[in-house]
Amino acid sequence: MNILYIVEAGGGVGRHLYDLIDGLADKGHKITLAYSNARMDAQFQVDIDKLSDRGVITVEISMARGPSLTDFYVLFRLLFVHYKYGPFEIVHGHSSKGGALARIIAPIMGAKSIYTPHAFYSMNPGLSACKLWIYKKIELLLARLSEAIILTSKQEVDHSLLLHLPPSSIYLIHNGSNSSIAPQDEVEDFQSACNIKQGDFIFGFVGRFEYQKNPEFLIEAFSTLARTCKNQKLIMVGDGFLRHRLEELAKNLGISEYVKFPGFYPSAVAMKSFDVFVLPSRYEGSPYVLHDAALAGLPIISTNVGGADILVRDGVNGYLVEQNTIGAMATAMRHLMEDPVRAKQMSMNSLKLMTSYSVDNMVDKTLDLYKIILDKN
User: Fold this and answer.
1) Distance between first and last Cα of the chain
2) The pLDDT of residue 42
3) Can you give the pLDDT at residue 377?
4) Which residue numbers in the chain have pLDDT < 50?
5) What pLDDT is stored for residue 136 in this prediction?
6) 235 contacts 262 by C-beta, under 8 angstroms
7) What pTM was computed for the model?
8) How many Å separate Cα 374 from the centre of its chain?
9) Alpha-carbon distance 285 to 290, whole Å?
10) Residue by residue, what is the 3-state secondary structure of the chain?
11) What is the pLDDT of residues 110-124, one digit of tens each?
């Protein structure tokens, strides 16, 4: 099978693509990846280099995040990719921009188009009524060009029904993860960078510092603990355009000494030093970082967003709280800090939950769907 993947995003989307492409390459399929470096994180670049080394064709094409006149240039480049490395049987777009480009170009290539949104942009609670209406119409229009839309959580499936997308085109395939080894020297370097001392209780976040992830909410909730407890830290791993604002917020709240911003570190490395993982997002599709936290055997506190309930069972291995409820978030954090027996049990429960969500299972289900789509002819 000859497959073209198109992606503009990085982060969890990039990780998903690496696992999927790596698994399909193992099965002997020919893969081409067209990607943009505009929002690429360091780990995705490393993963792309790994894929290139094993024979996957990788093509860098600059793509704007939103609709742009440069999209015509991107479509032209994709046609060149088709003539050089095609013909493709499947064109699979990831995230909103990748999905739009894939569905526009696939009919011209004579290929079948598949779309994985990794959270519909219309799930963003910050959209105005006008923008929400526009994005809903765009999704509905492009759905007519889709042979299949792969969603990764029940919340995404429910949202697709609100968008009036055809149910016959919707397929639910959960993300999968395998455990990764964190080198001890990297763990020690991380602990040194964060000034972690014996006896510290560490709340951790890993992700992009942007509106979707709502990192301000976590810092505000943590500040209510920092005023009364002095042995805890909040470590914010990652980077993004909100970093300066977050640092200023911690300073204004008087908790700068307890909140650390070490920059980018591999998730597996950071998780080794956390006692609790916290995800404060406004919306998600199916966040990979929860897989990492569960694989690390951490209790998890998350806002009740898309995909969170897959790996966070309220009261079993963590807590689900509603968005922007600072008191509820702070209470959940305090419970785990003050009750080590409960935290230990939740830790073991996180590890148990991960047994059903492997990369192999995700790859096999995706490949089965490709075959179903191609057999429809």
Assistant:
1) 15
2) 75
3) 63
4) none
5) 86
6) yes
7) 0.74
8) 28
9) 12
10) CEEEEEECCCHHHHHHHHHHHHHHHHCCCEEEEEECCCCCCHHHHHHHHHHHHCCCEEEECCCCCCCCCHHHHHHHHHHHHHHHHCCCCEEEEEHHHHHHHHHHHHHHHCCEEEEECCCCHHHCCCCCHHHHHHHHHHHHHHHCCCCEEEECCHHHHHHHHHCCCCHHHEEECCCCCCCCCCCHHHHHHHHHHCCCCCCCEEEEEECCCCHHHCHHHHHHHHHHHHCCCCCEEEEEECCCCCHHHHHHHHHHCCCHHHEEEEECCCHHHHHCCCCEEEECCCCCCCCHHHHHHHHCCCCEEEECCCCHHHHCCECCCEEEECCCCHHHHHHHHHHHHHCHHHHHHHHHHHHHHHHHCCHHHHHHHHHHHHHHHHHCC
11) 999 999 998 888 887
The superfamily (CATH) of domain 184-356 is Glycogen Phosphorylase B; (3.40.50.2000)
Torsion sign, CA atoms 208, 13, 61, 24:
positive
CATH superfamily placement of domain 2-176+358-375: Glycogen Phosphorylase B; (3.40.50.2000)
